[in-house]
């Protein structure tokens, strides 16, 4: 049995679970998410827990068992608490500001970059810190990665956009030609 898959998902009173065939809908105070179940995976609701079971012990079913349990647990946590990632902007003249439904970045290019804010995502800018938050963990991570890709951290000059706490090893530049 899968170690991750057999752990029940605890539910709070403000989470509503709707199981219709192969679709599991999860609704909470922050939003609602739904996941389609793969063939052979079933979800059952007890009093205060959600359990994921599989049909057989094939390699594919074992992998999907743990995956679906993790996805559903992330959905339950997302609609109750939410997720956030924080990025830092390093560089002289590099800055960001929220303008309506977009974030305007000045990152040393010849033109500013307008990054549209997707639905379900909230972006806050405080000084050189950008906080991306939302209830869908995958979407928060993807938006954070897209923002980081606008100006990846440079290992030579230590400039760019990086996750808070991300360590960069400074590389030595080329020495003079001998």
TrEMBL record:
<comment type="subunit">
    <text>Part of the 50S ribosomal subunit.</text>
</comment>
<keyword id="KW-0694">RNA-binding</keyword>
<dbReference type="InterPro" id="IPR020040">
    <property type="entry name" value="Ribosomal_uL6_a/b-dom"/>
</dbReference>
<dbReference type="InterPro" id="IPR000702">
    <property type="entry name" value="Ribosomal_uL6-like"/>
</dbReference>
<keyword id="KW-0699">rRNA-binding</keyword>
<feature type="domain" description="Large ribosomal subunit protein uL6 alpha-beta">
    <location>
        <begin position="91"/>
        <end position="163"/>
    </location>
</feature>
<dbReference type="InterPro" id="IPR036789">
    <property type="entry name" value="Ribosomal_uL6-like_a/b-dom_sf"/>
</dbReference>
<protein>
    <recommendedName>
        <fullName>Large ribosomal subunit protein uL6</fullName>
    </recommendedName>
</protein>
<keyword id="KW-0689">Ribosomal protein</keyword>
<keyword id="KW-0687">Ribonucleoprotein</keyword>
<feature type="domain" description="Large ribosomal subunit protein uL6 alpha-beta">
    <location>
        <begin position="14"/>
        <end position="82"/>
    </location>
</feature>
<comment type="similarity">
    <text>Belongs to the universal ribosomal protein uL6 family.</text>
</comment>
<comment type="function">
    <text>This protein binds to the 23S rRNA, and is important in its secondary structure. It is located near the subunit interface in the base of the L7/L12 stalk, and near the tRNA binding site of the peptidyltransferase center.</text>
</comment>
<dbReference type="GO" id="GO:0003735">
    <property type="term" value="F:structural constituent of ribosome"/>
</dbReference>
<dbReference type="GO" id="GO:0022625">
    <property type="term" value="C:cytosolic large ribosomal subunit"/>
</dbReference>
<dbReference type="Pfam" id="PF00347">
    <property type="entry name" value="Ribosomal_L6"/>
</dbReference>
<dbReference type="GO" id="GO:0019843">
    <property type="term" value="F:rRNA binding"/>
</dbReference>
<dbReference type="InterPro" id="IPR019906">
    <property type="entry name" value="Ribosomal_uL6_bac-type"/>
</dbReference>
<dbReference type="GO" id="GO:0002181">
    <property type="term" value="P:cytoplasmic translation"/>
</dbReference>
């Amino acid at each position: 049995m899968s170690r991750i898959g057999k752990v029940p998902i605890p539910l709070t009173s403000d989470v509503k679970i709707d199981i219709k065939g192969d679709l599991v809908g999860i609704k909470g105070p922050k939003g609602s998410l739904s996941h389609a179940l793969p063939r052979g995976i079933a979800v059952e609701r007890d009093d205060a827990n959600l359990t994921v079971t599989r049909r057989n012990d094939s390699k594919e079913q074992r992998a999907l068992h743990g995956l679906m349990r993790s996805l559903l647990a992330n959905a339950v946590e997302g609609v109750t608490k939410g997720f956030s990632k924080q990025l830092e902007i390093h560089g002289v003249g590099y800055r960001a500001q929220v303008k309506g439904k977009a974030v305007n970045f000045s990152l040393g290019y010849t033109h500013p970059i307008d990054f549209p804010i997707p639905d379900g995502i909230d972006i806050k800018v405080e000084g050189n810190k950008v906080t991306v938050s939302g209830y869908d963990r995958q979407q928060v991570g993807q938006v954070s990665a897209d923002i980081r890709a606008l100006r990846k951290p440079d290992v030579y000059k230590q400039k760019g956009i990086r996750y808070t706490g991300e360590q960069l090893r400074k590389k030595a530049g080329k020495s003079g030609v001998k």
